């Protein structure tokens, strides 16, 4: 555990951040609005639910003091609190299903993770919390269909990368209105950085220093979770989450970060604890691995889909040609970095690779219990991306080409009926066809075996230009569509016949109530790998 150590912010900045933290009640559905019976409602950060299971739900909240302290030197010292919870069939709680109480303790950031058992499969429930006389917002969540159930539809919102100062979270307001069954969040829920020195192009200020301690990371989540649109998206359905690098430090992998190793490992442990405290994860995420979090897992949606969520940071080998203790090299010349092709290097870690191979074998098309759609849900762009200058990325799967080919081989050998990969991280929209030889041009001799949708950011800047992206597309026939100028999320609808992905784009990320529009729509048809643009 670490003690708080914040750099005081100027009074004007504190005023601006306090203004931006004011919860816009109108962003929430009518059934989700809190009852405020105290001077301060401790449910400032909203509520959430986690992975859907057929017979249980996981509900989450975290108590806070008023958030005006953010950016000051001292965080409030709160005692343990009793939190009551209840689940019902209706938003008015006239048809109760279950209720109970738990403790919100200081050593876990006053967060509570409650698993509610004994529920019916494939149905919606409403839930809320109470502390003293204060009620949280009312939120809804659902259970998964029973194993083997004949399911006709699954609606997903897929998103990543939401740096606070780079843009407002209007994409989340749109996602909440779309009313998905499940949100898949693929990493970079927070960013560890302090605000850039130059405010040009920023949507809103933030007063926090670069996160180093447990309290720093807790405060960073409090800042992000104070956003009304993000709270609305959490309140409307379950979220299944994985992490990427900015939950700890840019481009870290496993035990490798910048600077002194002992300092980095202490920082990483603080960041990992804060992630658990602030995400709707079951206690089993802690129990399976006391030195980290167990995040890779599979979710079943009846006979329709299986979602394999992966951890691309905790077990990975160091980026090729990156000196230990230094920042990532970004890109390298392959001729000067033979380690790129070392088959011993793994993106997922060998235990996770073997686990995923077993899951894909379970998706084999000849199995009567196999789901129709097999989705590999991971953090970043999977497809090969050759740059015109000949250089190669080291932090994406391009930096681990042998590991990528092993996964492609696993898909080819297991032969799920329909294989799709989902990713984020790069702040750009990429739609790709994955061939049996992943780094070669798809053709008759190198058939397409899977589809990929790598989504843009909720708010984070891209850092490149469309002209550069167009040049990459010209050098990579497997890239069917690529855009870098939009922010937003992907809305995915899976049926037995097809998987349709709608790329939703924010009109103006610097406008809090910006509208969204459809940038493009793609379909993958049953038994026909490869995305096809339909709008």
Index terms:
single chain; 535 residues; alpha+beta; seven-stranded mixed sheet; 9 helices; 19% helix; globular
Description:
With 535 residues, the chain is α+β, with helices and mostly antiparallel strands. Helix content is 19%, strand content 25%. It has nine helices and 24 strands. It has helices spanning 11-21, 170-178, 214-225, 228-236, 261-278, 284-287, 350-362, 401-414, 466-474; strands at residues 47-49, 57-62, 81-88, 96-104, 111-116, 124-131, 134-135, 139-142, 154-159, 182-185, 238-241, 297-301, 305-309, 331-332, 373-377, 392-393, 419-423, 429-435, 448-454, 479-483, 488-494, 498-506, 516-525, 528-533. The strands form five sheets. Strands 11-10-9-21-22-23-24 form a seven-stranded mixed sheet. Strands 12-13-15-17-19-18-20 form a seven-stranded mixed sheet. Strands 3, 4, 6, 7 and 8 form a five-stranded antiparallel sheet that branches. α2 (170-178) links the parallel β9 (154-159) and β10. α2 (170-178) runs parallel beside α4 (228-236), α3 runs parallel beside α5 and α7 (350-362) packs parallel to α8 (401-414). The longest helix has 18 residues, at 261-278. The protein is globular, with a radius of gyration of 22 Å. The termini are far apart.
